From TrEMBL:
InterPro entries: AB_hydrolase_fold (IPR029058), Leu-rich_rpt (IPR001611), Leu-rich_rpt_typical-subtyp (IPR003591), LRR_dom_sf (IPR032675), LRR_R13L4/SHOC2-like (IPR055414), Peptidase_S28 (IPR008758), PGIP (IPR051848)
Cellular compartment(s): Cell membrane; Membrane
Domain of life according to the entry: Eukaryota
Record flagged with keyword Electron transport: no
Organism, scientific name: Citrus unshiu
Name the record gives this protein: Disease resistance R13L4/SHOC-2-like LRR domain-containing protein
């Protein structure tokens, strides 16, 4: 059953197959421990459980097999020590990850392992095998041996042992024998200071060499091991991966090639491969294991796992996990052992708020990391100040979490940083002035936190900054005039803070701006004329402040503007006629000011306008008929002004309108029947005017209408029976008019109605009995 997608534990009942000789369950998704009943399989001579997720200890019962020849438990999550039966079974091939099974602790103690990696390309004599093994035991003789001699001895030993025991994986007792009998090989007897000797007939033109020696202690962690291996990998990478030994023997299990020498001493065999360490560290998170159980897309090659990228040496350089590709990113971030990934350049996890825990300080060992994105998770705790050690970091995004505490000033040491996004957390304190040292920064986003203090003057040093977003905080003080030095700014968002003082005229030189947002502050003074220099500006949001004075005519120069919001201020004077030049506008909101004069007919030139809100001002005169040209309009509010004259019948051309509010004006005349053409209308508010005449029956065509307010007018006639067709209507107020006749029973067909106000009219007759149905339903 090798190489399938079987999961779950190994059933103990399987051990009742007493005649079983071969059991191959490798490369599946099996979990749990190895059943202790496995000792019942007395006929077993081949056992392969490799490439699963088996955990626990190796059961001692494995030593009870009298015929066993091969045991492969590699690539699992086994722990504990190597059982003593390893010495007793004569033909045992147990390929396991030795570091995980405590080989160093049980056999190495605190001893140093010494690794020598040497790579040659040469043509010459082979070196004879050493004839006196006793001489090799003498540590004082080690320095006299040519490094190639030690490598030749290991080649012969490896070749002979594998041939005799018919295995690709040296039995552990053989490796121990090697360590005891051939210490110059096993412990790297060639000193790091030993010279590299050439053979007599090798010339420099035909010889290329490199030498790396490294010491390893049993207690070393992943990080140091990986750093030591890094230099070794540099040597190996330079010449490829073919293995030819210096005595002319070719390793029978190496890849093809005949000119490259690549040898490690056998101590390397006692070390877990750094690549396997990386693979095991990935498995330990459970993020991929759970995903395989869901998708079944299992492969033993971790470089092919979802979101994993590797370099040519098969070492992980990138992790990118997005919740919509892998919805099993759960648990805590600390599951990921960053110290086992020294070559990691990019780490991105977006779990849709499933990943929790704090940012481990261990993350700061990633000396090669360039991109760190932990956005949209459920991380808590502080940002470690040690993150300032990640000197190669270019992109840091910790947004959309629950991080607390201060922004570490040490982030100012990340001199290569281009993007810093800490938005949508619960960070407090000031914006550190040290961020002004990040002269390569293009994006600084700290929005939606609880940051206070003022905008640091040092921000003026960020000459290449393109995005500055400090919105939705508690930042006070004034906007520094030096912000005008940031000539490359495209987005400046200081909205929803506690900023005071005027808008500095120095914003005028920020000619690359596309978004200028300062709404919801306490900014006062007038809108500077220099704002008209921002030719690329698309969004201008200055609403909900204390701005005063007129709307500057220079705003008409902002020909790229799509959104202009100046509402909730104290602006005075007329609406500039030149606003009609802003023919790309989609949103125009000048409400809640003190604007006077007529609505300029030039507003009708704004062909792309979708939202027009001029409510709560002191505008006067008629509604310009040119408004009917705004065929893209969906929202029109002219509420609470002093507008006079009739409602233009041409408003019926605005067939995309969903909201129409003309309330609290001095409009006269009838409600035009053309309003019945507004098929998408949901809200029609016309109260507090001087409208007269009957309610047009065409209103019944507004099948999407939810709210109809006609109160406080002089409307006459009866309530149209056809209003009962408005089955989406929830609010109806016809009060304070001069309506007469009975309440039509058809009105009770408006099944979603929750509010019905008909008071202060001239209605007669009885209350329809069907009204009880409305009470029952709503």
């Amino acid at each position: 059953m090798y190489n399938n997608k079987l999961d779950g534990p190994i059933p103990p009942e399987l051990m009742n197959c007493s005649k079983l000789r071969i059991l191959k369950l490798g490369n599946n998704l099996l979990s749990g421990s190895i059943p202790s009943q496995i000792g019942k399989l007395q006929e077993l001579y081949y056992l392969d459980l490799s490439g699963n997720f088996i955990n626990g200890k190796i059961p001692s019962q494995l030593g009870e097999f009298p015929r066993i020849d091969t045991v492969d438990l590699s690539m699992n999550n086994l722990s504990g020590g190597i059982p003593v039966f390893v010495r007793k079974v004569p033909h045992l091939d147990i390929c396991v990850e030795l570091q995980a099974l405590g080989w160093w602790q049980s056999h190495g103690g605190a001893r140093y392992w010494h690794i020598l990696v040497k790579r040659y390309r040469f043509y010459g004599k082979s070196v004879p095998f050493v004839s006196s093994k006793d001489a090799l035991k003498n540590a004082t003789l080690r320095g006299y041996f040519n490094s190639a001699q030690a490598l030749a001895d290991y080649a012969r030993f490896s070749y002979t042992s594998r041939k005799i025991y018919r295995t690709k994986c040296l039995p552990l007792w053989l490796l121990e024998h090697l360590m005891e009998e051939y210490r110059h090989i096993a412990l790297g007897a060639v000193a790091s200071s030993a010279p590299i000797l050439y053979f007599d007939n090798i010339t420099p033109s035909n010889a290329y060499y490199d030498l790396v020696t490294k010491d390893f202690r049993a207690s070393e962690g992943c990080l140091r091991i990986e750093r030591l291996f890094r230099d070794i990998r540099v040597v190996l990478k330079r010449f490829g991966s073919n293995i030819i030994f210096s005595n002319g023997l070719r390793d029978p299990y190496s890849s093809e090639g005949d000119t490259t020498i690549s040898v490690t001493t056998s101590a390397a065999g006692l070390l877990s491969s750094p690549i396997l360490l990386e693979r095991e560290a990935l498995l330990a998170t459970g993020w991929w294991v759970n995903n395989w159980a869901t998708t079944g897309n299992y492969t033993s090659d971790h470089c092919k796992w979802t979101g994993i990228s590797c370099n040519s040496a098969v070492s992980v350089i990138g992790v990118s996990l997005l919740w919509y590709e892998n919805d099993n990113i759960t648990g805590e971030l600390g599951r990921f052992k960053f110290s086992c990934f020294p070559n990691l350049r990019s780490f991105k996890i977006r779990s849709n708020y499933l990943l929790s825990g704090s940012i481990p300080s261990e993350i700061t060992v990633l000396s090669t990391i360039r991109t760190l994105e932990l956005t949209s998770n459920n991380l808590t705790g502080i940002i470690p100040s040690e993150m300032g050690r990640l000197r190669n970091l270019v992109h840091l995004d910790l947004s959309n979490n629950h991080l607390t505490g201060h922004i570490p000033p040490t982030l100012g040491r990340l001199s290569k940083l281009k993007i810093l996004n800490l938005s949508s957390n619960s960070l407090v304190g000031n914006v550190p002035s040290t961020l002004g040292h990040l002269t390569q920064l293009t994006t600084l986003a700290i929005a939606s936190n609880q940051i206070n203090g003022s905008i640091p003057l040092e921000i003026e040093n960020l000459k290449v900054l393109q995005v500055l977003d400090l919105s939705r905080n508690e930042i006070g003080g004034s906007i520094p005039s030096t912000i005008g030095h940031l000539k490359r700014l495209r987005i400046l968002d200081l909205s929803q803070n506690k900023l005071v003082g005027p808008i500095p005229s120095s914003v005028g030189p920020l000619t690359q701006l596309t978004t200028l947002n300062m709404h919801s502050n306490r900014i006062n003074g007038s809108i500077p004329l220099e704002i008209g220099n921002l030719n690329f500006l698309q969004v201008l949001g200055l609403s909900d402040n204390k701005l005063e004075g007129p709307i500057p005519s220079t705003i008409a120069s902002l020909v790229s503007l799509t959104s202009l919001s100046l509402h909730y201020n104290n602006l005075i004077g007329p609406i500039p006629l030149t606003l009609g030049h802003l023919n790309r506008l989609t949103d125009l909101d000048l409400s809640e000011n003190k604007l006077v004069g007529p609505i300029p007919s030039s507003v009708g030139h704004l062909n792309f306008l979708q939202v027009l809100d001029l409510s709560n001002n002191k505008l006067e005169g008629p509604i310009p008929s040119t408004i009917a040209s705004l065929v893209n309009l969906t929202y029109l509010s002219l509420q609470d002004n002093n507008l006079t004259g009739p409602i233009p019948s041409t408003l019926g051309h605005l067939d995309r309108l969903t909201y129409l509010d003309l309330s609290e004006n001095k409009l006269v005349g009838p409600i035009p029947s053309s309003v019945g053409h507004l098929n998408f209308l949901q809200v029609l508010d016309l109260p507090n005017n001087k409208l007269e005449g009957p309610i047009p029956s065409t209103i019944a065509s507004l099948v999407n209408l939810k709210s109809l307010s006609l109160e406080y007018n002089n409307l006459t006639g009866s309530i149209p029976l056809t209003l009962g067709h408005l089955n989406r209507l929830t609010f109806l107020d016809l009060s304070d008019n001069k309506l007469d006749g009975p309440i039509p029973p058809e009105l009770m067909n408006c099944s979603k109605l929750t509010t019905l106000i008909l008071g202060n009219n001239l209605l007669s007759g009885s209350i329809p009995s069907q009204i009880g149905k409305l009470q029952e339903d709503n």
